[in-house]
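G., the chain you wanted modeled:
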Amino acid sequence: MARADLLGVQMDIYSAFSKFLAGQLVAAYDARHARNPGLEDAVALLRQWNGRMEADKAAPMLAALAFPHVRTSIAEAAAPGKGRSYETKMSSAMVEKLLRERPDGWFRDYNEMLLRVLVDTVEEGKNLYGQDVKHWRYGASLRVGIVNPVFHRVPAIGRYFDLAPVAVSGSGTTVKQSTQVLGRRCG
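Predicted structure as tokens:
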């Protein structure tokens, strides 16, 4: 494999799971023939999204905010009254399997659950990132800083060798793994 090809693979920020989740939210909205002006922009962004977790885009932010709401809904269905306290992260593969197969006994109506997730996602995003969903940026929630392990310790100049927190693309479900828990924070 050529070096350029290898670099391209390492920098891959496409999330099949997040794209799948976005499609599930849009399909639930469409299936219910819901028309909610407060959700129209979010649905339009998810509908046209290519699944790339780009720092400067709004749609990846919607998908990233929706996932914890789906996890909480699933945990609540499994253990009523304890969904919010469930701290173990469920894998995206399990969530995807449940949403693909939609087995009986978990939810009376999966589309209803997904619409609730969409409403909660947009509400949370508006509280955190502003009223206009089109102006949200995924990188606002995914900032990574890197402390230089050698030069950081040099008095007076060490901090100049650190990488201050910057918005990054990628996610925990992309080849380019980008999460908030990579290494130590600058500071």
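The two ends are 39 Å apart (CA to CA).

Shout if anything looks off.
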